[in-house]
Specification:
Blueprint lengths: L1 H7 L4 E5 L4 H12 L5 E4 L6 H10 L8 E4 L2 E4 L1 H9 L2 H8 L6
Parallel strand pairs: 1-2
Antiparallel strand pairs: 1-3, 3-4
C-alpha cells in the first residue's frame, strides 16, 4: 500500500495501468484528450508490479487496472472514470487537483 500511496501522490493524476490492457489504453487517451498529462505506472513492466497489483486489489479495485488517482485520492477504475466524464464532474476534479487550468 505504501508504494501505491507514494506513487499516487507524486502527480495531480496517476493512472495504474497494464501495457496490454485495452481499457487502460482508453482511459489514458481520455485524459490526454482532456489536456491532462498523467503519470502512468505500467504495473506489468514495473519491478514492484505484483506488490502494486495486490495493493490496488486491497483498495477495492476490481479489475485492478486501470486505477485512477486524482489529487492523491483514489477515484476509481474505468467504469467510475467514464461515468464522471459523462456526467461532467471529472473536469471539476481535474481542475481542483491542478491537472487542468481551463
Amino acid at each position: 500500500m505504501d508504494v501505491v500511496a507514494r506513487l499516487a501522490s507524486q502527480r495531480a493524476v496517476v493512472i495504474f495501468s497494464k501495457s496490454t490492457c485495452c481499457m487502460s489504453h482508453a482511459i489514458k487517451r481520455l485524459f490526454y484528450e482532456q489536456g491532462v498529462s498523467p503519470a502512468i505506472v505500467e504495473i506489468d513492466q514495473d519491478m514492484y508490479g505484483k506488490e502494486i497489483e495486490w495493493a490496488l486489489a486491497r483498495l477495492g479495485c476490481s479489475p485492478t487496472v486501470p486505477a485512477v488517482f486524482v489529487g492523491g485520492k483514489f477515484v476509481g477504475t474505468a467504469n467510475t472514470v467514464m461515468t464522471l466524464h459523462l456526467n461532467g464532474s471529472l473536469k471539476k476534479l481535474l481542475k481542483d487537483a491542478g491537472a487542468l487550468w481551463l
